[in-house]
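Supplementary Note 3. Input sequence used for the single-chain structure prediction.
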Amino acid sequence: MSSLEYRHSSAVGDPKEELAIRFVNTAAWRLRSPREERLPDAQAFLHWLTANLAGSEQQLAPINVRWRAHQHDGAKTYEAAIALREAIYELLVARIADVAPPIAVLEHFNAHLVRPADGIRLWARASELAWDLREASDRDLFKPITTSAASLMTGPKAHRIRQCQDDRGCGCLFIDESRAMNRRWCSMGDCGNRAKALRHYRRSRGRIDSSSS
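The predicted structure, written as discrete structure tokens, is reproduced below.
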């Protein structure tokens, strides 16, 4: 097992979703208590970056080594990452509810958005482009996330942001790409199938109860 390998593969997220959505969804079961934290520490955050930015373990190795030697640096960056994640979540759910976001939350996000990130750039891998993090500082690591979030919130998909309506409190966010824009669940293979099965069970029980009365 590599030094950056994280034990919960579910933290990686759906590669088809926007990067900002994948990041927000690293806090699972948001609408119930306790929720599930899929990025429990700085090492997990580094693994998430490697998995989601199509980078390499070698790119983040210097940061990984430094964080292990100076745990305060890693802990501080991790704390900032979680705070950024929660700010993005609040902005997105405000968009879903069609209400103005809290000013303090927007200012917190903007502070990250406008911060220069001189240590990252794009690099070409055959015909694909990916983030190059080899010279990134700790706070530079946030730039791909804030860029994705700002583009999502101001772009053509903003009105398609949804939150899973699973009654167990899933709370995952997703982009509704359906033609009718009536998608209710994060995944038909999980929450959607469960909801359908529950409806079928209740209808069946109703028929049984009616016939026995």
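Residues 1-9 have pLDDT under 50 and may be disordered. DSSP finds seven helices and six strands in the chain.
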